[in-house]
Amino acid sequence: MDALTLVIGSKNLSSWSLRAWLALKRAGADFAEHVIPLDRSDTRAALDARTPSGKVPVLRHGETIIWESLAICEYVAELFPEARLWPEDAAARATARAVSAEMHAGFVALRTYRPLNMRDRRPAEGFAPGVTEDVARVLAVWAHCRDRFGGAPFLFGDFTLADAMFAPVVSRFRTYGVALEGADRDYADAVWELPEMQEWAAAAAAEP
Ligand SMILES: N[C@@H](CCC(=O)N[C@@H](CS)C(=O)NCC(=O)O)C(=O)O
């Protein structure tokens, strides 16, 4: 297989990068990573030099360049079918794609006012119009997956790309002190305690 390189942003800050990185890690892919710090004076130049859209993540596979986190996740699922990154059941798979697309396109208030900061704790921040509704919708999505597909410990039982898409939300809930109970807390804990998530969090904590 041609070499895989994932271009990502700072691990403490880049939620979209985390999703693609988790997909590759969970697939057991052998890949190189190139980190672009997102809070430097030369960040724009570095992004423009390394990415077609000026944003991270970007996956390079030989001559192929894939941008947009969800497209990267889909590509990784196709490259590594044995990793079963989507549910096998068609209804579960369609739902996993629906909630992943909803995450990719929506939750604008949550993403805007409660940006990823893996290592920080800011329980008094991030209150803005739309945030409470977004949090409620996240929990409704989790409950739907759980109730309809019996998902535990992850949304569809085993880890899927839907969990990768919601992983940064789990971190945001910790950062901004969103209190979770019962099955929601169990799910968030399962995501947070993934070895790959812990690896990312440790790297985020070590960033300058
Ligand atoms: N829709 C894109 C969003 C990518 C995105 O906004 N990435 C952020 C980092 S998390 C970025 O590159 N920001 C730099 C900028 O916009 O200048 C995706 O899913 O990959």
Describe the structure in your own words.
With 208 residues, the chain is α+β, with helices and mostly antiparallel strands. It folds into two domains: 4-83, Glutaredoxin (3-Layer(aba) Sandwich), CATH 3.40.30; 90-197, Glutathione S-transferase Yfyf (Class Pi), Chain A, domain 2. Helices cover 53% and strands 10% of the residues. The chain has nine helices and four strands, in the order E-H-E-H-E-E-H-H-H-H-H-H-H. Strands 2-1-3-4 form a four-stranded mixed β-sheet. Strand 1 (4-9), helix 1 and strand 2 form a beta-alpha-beta unit. The chain is globular, with a radius of gyration of 16 Å.
What are the SSEs and their pairings?
Elements: E1 4-9, H1 15-27, E2 31-36, H2 43-50, E3 58-61, E4 64-67, H3 69-79, H4 90-105, H5 108-113, H6 131-149, H7 161-175, H8 182-192, H9 195-206
Parallel strand pairs: 1-2
Antiparallel strand pairs: 1-3, 3-4
Bound molecules: glutathione.
Glutathione is lined by residues 9, 14-17, 47, 54-57, 68-70, 104.
